[in-house]
Write a structure and sequence with these properties.
426 residues, alpha/beta, four-stranded mixed sheet, 16 strands, binds pyridoxal-5'-phosphate
């Protein structure tokens, strides 16, 4: 496969952009080699600057659930653009998208639009703190909630109860109120509550963890978390930036029948444009400015073009619930196929999947949390990664990122991918 254009662009990019990319996950640091510079995309396929075609398993990290370049969304964006790009005033589409969500998702009584998932999480946590008058936040090791200071915290070791920054530039003071629990380990959650009575404002969790590869919640785990938060008067925030409108219209909350107090959305909600949102209980959401004293704002929040794209995508998903069955079939076919390869070819992999999300780990033990995910073999993955990429399958360049299926993926694309994967493990 010839990648001269990508190589040359990457060289130029490295000169002017840190690492040559505007978001670290795009760089090929963990697998080596040159990121492909994508020129255009259509349906289930990406086309790079050298004209190579790939099956797209990144879906822009989630937003493109209907496939790339969807004609209805494209039309909505073009039409909106003709009326102006940004007004900084209230607009009709903001009402329509809020109404669409709040009238069809019971646990979202009110919603506020922002510009990214990071912003949504930051704002939801502030709302929870403002509402409860408490400072501490529980998150889970391996869950990603955007790049705000308080969320870039990893577990403290041993007897430490407060977190340590996971990035330079995050003050210890910001990390000290973030407590880290272990995914699928309810004891670790109970321990943090016991050690900090009356101090925990909220617990935030990816109801399906999709940022350490794909890790599913074990039976009863989310239910127990709901119970504990209710008992302790802590706000339960489901970070549904990936799972919202993906696992089901009502996200993981609907899928698992759990009612969170607040939810955060992003990715799908913008249809490919930069959008995030947070919403939930009315008594919490009315704490937000201008009616409440929790401040949160945004010059471009609810941007007309972004709302047009989001509204178009959400309307299609709402009107066509059969899309979720179709996505589930595609995801299941991929996972079944990979597990068959594992069995028949003794491939040293673990395959996790739910609906249109999957994860393939190069490890032998079940992956249920961050520690088990991290046991995966990075070198083997890198070999597999490049083998697949060279044969036209564009997965995320890390086994700690999820595989995303879209409604544009056809059975044929999956079979094609499985055949290549089987060849690798020959
Ligand atoms: C992507 C992601 C975010 C951050 O969203 P951005 O739009 O990248 O800021 C937050 N939470 C989860 C679960 C995500 O996957």
């Amino acid at each position: 496969m010839e990648i001269k254009q990508s190589e040359s662009l990457f060289k130029r990019a490295m000169t002017f952009i840190p690492g040559g990319v505007n978001s670290p996950v795009r760089a090929f640091f963990s697998v080596g080699g040159t990121p492909r510079f994508i020129e255009r995309a259509d349906g289930a396929y990406l086309y790079d600057q050298d004209g190579n075609k790939y099956i797209d398993y990144i879906s822009s990290w989630g937003p493109m659930i209907l496939g790339q370049n969807h004609p209805v969304i494209k039309e909505a964006v073009i039409k909106a653009a003709e009326s102006g790009l940004s007004f900084g005033t209230a607009t009709k589409r903001e009402v329509e998208i809020a109404e669409l969500i709040c009238t069809s998702i019971p646990h979202v009584e009110m919603i506020r639009m922002v510009n990214s998932g990071t912003e949504a999480v930051m704002s939801a946590i502030r709302a929870a703190r403002g509402f409860t008058g408490r400072d501490k936040v529980i998150k889970f090791e391996g869950c990603y909630h955007g790049h705000t200071d308080a969320m870039l915290v990893k577990a403290g070791s041993g007897m430490m109860t407060s977190g340590i920054p996971d990035s330079r530039g995050v003050p210890m003071a910001c990390a000290k109120d973030t407590l880290t629990a272990i995914y699928n380990d309810i004891d670790s959650v109970e321990k943090l509550f016991a050690e900090n009575p009356g101090k925990i404002a909220c617990l935030i969790i990816e109801p399906v963890a999709a940022n350490m590869g794909l890790v599913l919640p074990e039976q009863g785990f989310l239910e127990k978390i709901r119970e504990i938060c209710t008992k302790e008067g802590a706000i339960l925030i489901f970070d549904e930036v990936i799972t919202g409108f993906r696992l089901a219209w009502g996200g993981a909350a609907q899928y698992f029948h759990i009612v969170p107090d607040l939810v955060t959305y992003g990715k799908i909600i913008g249809g490919g444009m930069p959008v995030g949102a947070y919403g939930g209980r009315k008594d919490i959401m009315t704490c937000i400015a201008p009616i409440g004293s929790v401040y949160q704002a945004g010059t471009l929040s609810g941007n007309p073009i972004a709302m047009a794209a989001g509204l178009a995508q959400l309307s299609i998903l709402k009107e066509h619930p059969e899309i979720y069955q179709q996505l589930d079939l595609i995801g299941t076919r991929f996972a079944d196929g990979m597990r068959k390869i594992k069995e028949e070819r003794k491939a040293p992999i673990i395959v996790n999947q739910i609906g249109s999300l999957a994860g393939v780990f190069f490890t032998k033990e079940p992956v249920i949390d961050y520690v088990s995910a991290k046991k995966s073999d990075a070198k083997e993955f890198a070999k597999y990664y490049h083998y697949m990429l060279d044969r036209g399958c564009y997965f995320a360049p890390s086994q700690f990122e999820a595989i995303f299926f879209s409604a544009a993926h056809k059975q044929q694309d999956i079979e094609d991918t499985l055949r290549k994967a089987a060849d690798f493990f020959e």
